[in-house]
Amino acid sequence: MRAATVLLSTLLLASTSLSAASAKTAAKPAADYAARVENVLRTTPLIDGHNDWPEMLRETEGDKRWTMDLRDLSANPAHYNTDVTRLRKGLLGGQFWSVWVSPDLPGDQQVVETLEQIDLVRSIVARYPDTFALARTADDVRKAHAAGRIASMIGVEGGGQIDGSLSVLRSYAALGAGYLTLTHSRNIAWADSATDNPEHNGLTPFGKQVVLELNRLGMLVDVSHVSEAVMRDAIATSKAPVIFSHSSARAINDHPRNVSDDVLRLIAAHDGVVMVNYASLYVSDAYRHWSADAAAEKIRLNSPPYGGLDIGQPDKAAADYAAWLKAHPKPPVALGEVADHIEHIARIAGVDHVGIGSDYDGVGNELPRGLGDVSTYPALLAELMRRGWSDADIAKLAGGNVLRVMEAAERVAAAPST
After folding, report:
1. Active-site residue identified among 145, 246, 270, 353
2. Does residue 225 have an active-site annotation?
3. Structure letter (DSSP) for residue 328
4. What is the pTM of this model?
5. Average pLDDT over residues 60-70
6. Which of 145, 225, 270, 353 is catalytic?
7. Which one of 113, 145, 163, 184 is the catalytic residue?
8. Of 50, 145, 341, 344, which residue is the catalytic one?
9. Would residue 192 show up in a list of annotated catalytic residues for this protein?
């Protein structure tokens, strides 16, 4: 009996000690993870593959965008996700700034507006030299990071923006563009979009020529927004690894903008990287279905000139739509769901092939809770640490992987022509 009592006392003591240790661990992780994140990002720049701040400024501010104070836009009615103060709080080390223009514009107008957007990025960098530094190469990024500045790269978000001209593409490269997204939301003459009806079933011969010219220029081939057939053709054609600048995992949310497991395996085999998008539409399957239902309800209520229960009665249609929204609330989307996409891509393709491509200021603030602006990158990294990610793997996700791909593209561009 005495032996049993001693054993029970020992077990209770051990259990109490374990509980105390667990409580201690649970009480301090926020500070511990924050310190770990800061430590990782001191040596590895956190690089975001896609931010639409330049276009948000253009659409919202017009000509004021050239001179307005960009240090703190948190109270602006436009609800910007980005400003200088929050970029610093988010510990960002490098950003591919998107220079998107509407794919509905005539080709020559797309070129003009792309040049204006490139000019805007360069202007912002020049206006805040203590915060930003232009970067074109991996070495440029590292030097900017070492100097305490945010490496500012440029991504042209749509093949239509070259207007079918390799000379235009070369001009963008000369102005500092670091990648070309092969399509945006619509098909173009040489490639299919993920969100349009197929026309070419992949890249045309000219499309493949574009990919090879990107290789020659040392620009990254970006296959976000393209159809799966174009993804496969681009990976097969490119001599350098390709990127998805802002896409997520299709196994979690079956949106065609996302990346299937088969393509994830191809990305791994060709040493590319998928930079995970934060947009609720691409993160949450429940949100995707709700969004489709909401759009269909608008059409059901009022679709002049022939359709709709409330046809020709916009006030009644608006009231009925508001009632529908109240009865069908938007599904919540949270930070952890973005982490789920990152973990899935790391599981299928490997931790060497995943990165971050937020899509800030490009998704109408339809963002997960906890990831509402550029100050929140550390929270996502901390969540992955809580899930067991090592500091070395966090460094790969944060920027190491995309730097490796940039270096590979630079090597291909530097290789002698054959």
Report:
1. 246
2. yes
3. S
4. 0.91
5. 97
6. 225
7. 184
8. 50
9. no
Residue 353 is among the residues annotated as catalytic for this protein: no
pLDDT in tens, 320-349: 999 999 999 999 999 999 999 999 999 999
Q: Residue 251 is encoded by which pair of tokens?
A: 């196994």
Q: Which two tokens stand for residue 298?
A: 């608008």
Residue from 330, 309, 329, 305 nearest 320 by CA: 309
d(CA 394, CA 397): 5
Q: Please tell me the distance from the alpha carbon of residue 20 to that of residue 28, in angstroms, as a whole number.
A: 12
**Rounded CA gap, 178 and 411, in Å?**
14
Cα dist from 194 to 48, 87, 233, 265, 275, whole Å? 22, 31, 14, 19, 17
Burial environment of residue 138 by CB neighbours within 10 A (0 to 12, 13 to 18, 19 or more): buried
Nearest to 78 by CA among 97, 59, 95, 100: 59
Instruction: Give the model's pLDDT for residue 20.
Output: 38
- Residue 50 bears catalytic tag: yes
Contact assessment for residue 153 and residue 169, using Cβ atoms and an 8 Å cutoff: no
Catalytic-role residue among 192, 359, 361, 393: 359
pLDDT in tens, 143-172: 999 999 999 999 999 999 999 999 999 999
Query: Which listed residue (48, 55, 113, 157) is catalytic?
Result: 157
* Contact call for residues 196 and 103 (beta carbons, < 8 A): no
Spot the catalytic one: 52, 340, 373, 393.
52
Of 98, 120, 104, the closest CA to residue 360 belongs to 98
For 284-296, the pLDDT digits (tens) are 999 999 999 999 9
